[in-house]
Amino acid sequence: MFTQPFAIPALLFFIVALPLIIGVIPRNRLYGFRTRKTLSDDAVWYPVNRAAGIAIVIASAVYFAATVMWPYNRAAADNFSVWLRHLAAFAVPLIVGLSVAGWYSKSLSDSVD
To answer: Please, are residues 62 and 43 in contact by the beta-carbon 8 Å criterion?
Structure first.
């Protein structure tokens, strides 16, 4: 696992996301899905950060599946295509998931207002 270029960051993101899912991180300016709307109200902060944490865990799991399906071999001739698959397998679910969390933030803050 540690020979894969994104395995360590994916594992770290997975670990960092767990407190967000559990809901033990209070509103703050350093850690969590921080927007004006999430920082303004606990009723928005906790559900949105749970959604963002789940998105990060899913992105990490998708990347792990990619490393199993397409192992990265530094000595192989065609590393670039495998590297791009690995990058896409981690970045795409992460971007989609965090975009959904942002949309969720807007919808929650509209219902709270």
So the answer is: no
